[in-house]
Amino acid sequence: MIVKTILPRALERLSVIEAGAPVSEAASLMSKPHTDLIDVCDHGDMVGVLTKTHIVGQIGRCMGSGCTARVDSIMTRDVTYCRTDDVLLDVWSVMRERGLQRVPILDEARRPLGIIYAREALQALLSESEDEEELLRDYISGVGYR
Q1: I need a labelling partner for 136 at 20 to 30 A (CA). Which of 4, 38, 76, 79 fits?
Q2: Residue 105 β-bridge partners
Q3: Which residues is 38 bridged to in the sheet?
Q4: Is 146 contained in some domain?
Q5: 3 state DSSP class of 63
Q6: Domain containing 59 — which CATH number?
Q7: ∠ at Cα 108 (106, 110), nearest 5°?
Q8: In which band, very low, low, confident or very high, does the pLDDT at 6 lie, cut at 50, 70 and 90?
Q9: Other C-beta atoms within 10 Å of 112: how many?
């Protein structure tokens, strides 16, 4: 199974902000349901990501309403990402090894296409495994060949 198979669901979770935007704008985006990771872009290309931890940490350092920090000053720049033609099992393995709950999906030009959640990837892999097991069971028992 490749990443492209879960792209429609991953697209629903996509949230993007420009690198020069204020942190307060990112906080507004993050307040939407199912928005746990924001792709930070510069002219459409992903240059980093933001999480709630980034935003809360920055707002905690601000005094009153004078928080004018930009998104690119607090984002993570070294981002693990995947492409639509990557094998989903490989992506999930990397997520597990690095303790990641979410990974952006990028196109060849580094433009964001969606966000994969570890739980969703694991569910898709489990479903695929169950389908293969059922096909194997049918093959062994001769279903469809009588």
Answers
A1: 4
A2: 82, 114
A3: 50
A4: no
A5: coil
A6: 3.10.580.10
A7: 50
A8: very high
A9: 23
Burial zone of 46 (CB within 10 Å; 0-12 exposed, 13-18 middle, 19+ buried) = buried
- Predicted TM-score (pTM) of the model is 0.81
The strand pairing partners of 60, in sequence order, are none
How many domains, the chain? 1
Torsion angle of C-alpha atoms 52, 54, 56, 60, degrees rounded to 10: 180
A 10 A CB-CB count for 105 gives: 23
Tens digit of each residue's pLDDT (9 = 90 or more) over 46-102: 999 999 888 888 877 776 555 778 999 999 999 999 999 999 999 999 999 999 999
Q: Report residue 122 as tokens.
A: 């694991």
Q: How far apart are CA 135 and CA 98, in angstroms?
A: 33
Report yes or no on 98 lying in a domain.
yes
Q: Would residue 8 count as lying in a domain?
A: yes
